[in-house]
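Fold it.
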Amino acid sequence: MLKKNLRILLVFLLLVVITLSSTFVFATDAEADANAVSTTEPTNEGEAVTTTEEASPTNENSEATTEDNHEGEESSNVLSADNLKSGDVYLCENKDVVVDYMIDGNLFVIAPKVTITSGIGGDVFIIAKEVEVGQEASIYNNMFVVANKIDFKGFVYDLYAVANDFTLSNYVYRDLKVAASNSVSISGGVVGRNAYLYGTSNISFTDNGDTKATISGNLEYSASEEKIPKDIENVSGSIIYHKISDTSKNSKPSTSDIVKGTIFKILITLVFIAIIWLMSLAVAPKFTKNSGATLSKKILPIILSGIAGLIIIPILSIILMFTVFGIYAGLLLLILYFILLAISTPVIVIALNNLVCDKFKVEKAPMKFLYLLITGLVISLISLIPVVGGLISFVIIILGVGLILTYIFSNIKHSSNNKKEEKNKPEKTK
């Protein structure tokens, strides 16, 4: 019984295999699958007949077309890759520059004319005579531009510009900051936040079709005249005006300004002389008392010391600063040199005042101070004389430096002599 059932099962499986093999054609490789077509045609007797045909020329053409399409897709992929620049782009040209490709980075350009018609992923920095940003351009960060004429029709987050003429015809997402000497025109442009304009009163708002020129935040501008009405509809926030004066290269200060400046300068000089006089009385009273006599008796050594000090001290300080261990000494010497120059004129005024007070036998301190101010005023007025005043001021500086150096060297010599005398005294007693 079991053998009979096995025979029936084997016959059934054999019939299934025959049926499947007679209905379908199996391709063993890619060519057989591409060139073979399975069709089933009915006959007059109602039987199904399966036939296999080779691919027609039409199929070959379709395959060729498919290959061409693949090639076209590859070429389009290459083209899109060429239209994208990854990283920063630097352009410095003597001819006009057109940026019509995407940049995934920052753009730096110096050229006569720059035109942007694509997207920029980073910041844009431009120096040119003329800059035009098209409607297709989108700058997804900040733009910094210096040009004679700027025509902005694209999109940017923040825009910083310096120009003679500036025109905005599209959208600044955040702030607009422009310094323009001639005109600023917002022609259908929109500023998402605030606008800061400097340098011109020629600021105009014009609608571009259905697009209204708008500043969504505040408008703050600095100009010589206030021309924008406070209630203008184009500005949603406040309008803040700062007046700036018209300045030119040929403009000169008024006579009153010159007089005020001169008086202020003289007053500062007199105050400085008084401070140096008080400090010298406290620190070096002997020098203050004898400065007039020293100046009159040692005029030639003082002049030579002054000239030598003006030349030698800065040279010596520079030499010390170029050495490894003398840089601090050189800096200190240079600082002392500038202090010496600063106090040289007050020192000479003090010395001349002592001579005047000795001449007129002025002994009281208040009167000496009054004579000091008068002496300082006279020297300050003499220094204002064209050409002659400059020469006199230079001679006073030489005398002041020489007088101070003479006093320092004489003290050093005097102290060294005292030390020698102290050493010799025990020997003489023996």
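The two ends are 160 Å apart (CA to CA).
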